Fold:
Amino acid sequence: MGDYLIKVVGARQEVRAFAAVTTEAAEEARRRHGTWPVATAALGRTLTAALLLGANLKGEYILTVRVLGDGPLGGIVATAGALGEVRGYVQEPHVDLPADQPSKLPVGKAVGKGFIYVTRDLGLKEPFTGSARLVSGEIAEDLANYLTVSEQFPSAVSLGVRVSPEGRVTAAGGIMVNLMPDASEETASRLEANLKAMPPISTLIEEGKSPEDILAMVFQGMDMEILSKMPVAFRCKCGRERVGELLLSLGEDELEKIYLADEATTVTCHFCGEAYTFDRSELGRLLEQLKTGGKEE
Structure:
């Protein structure tokens, strides 16, 4: 089963929900950034959170989730687009902490205290950013609290990443359940009971459960209608041309210093870890482009 995300409504349209399997995306992030297990779990959860939040985006709009705690992981950043693409990184990928509970990675301790920020770039003059304090550092609880406090949208969120003893991601995914303003107490209580009865998301995905299967458990005893389904993947928008534009943006003086100092320069993308090397002749061509006014405005 490849990674994908579904959006549904249910309980007489009193509830909107999203579910995603993101195992391949989380594993690709681990491979690209060389993360150790705790960082793998934290980054995988944040990537999934961005995809769930970004499921309502349209066109070229993008959404960014930043988890900025004071723990050893530093910042975690994930950006998702309307077509199910996601990319991200963790500031300190090589963090190892003792587990507080058997078989549970100490993500909360590694994230620490701080804030979660959600930025929506909807093509307006300025992007909109909301924020909330981290309540646990476990990402799911922090996102649910953000939606309730900052966006006044009572929600339940569950995120999970299962990491093998060898360090690979064997299961990853999540759900986000939003109560609509007219939701009844009966619906809220039934949802709460269903969610409490469910095994961890990573366990369900490792057992082969699909997003449809998982949301059927969430809506047990209630109606559910699938509105959309789309594939999701770790995909970065960086490229050699974009990195060349970045070098040009340094300006003539700075680029000339690089040209004179090094036979080549390598630029690594924070989001995907891809490295782009420009040799002396390529740097020279970029410098000439600046000197002759060839840079595009």
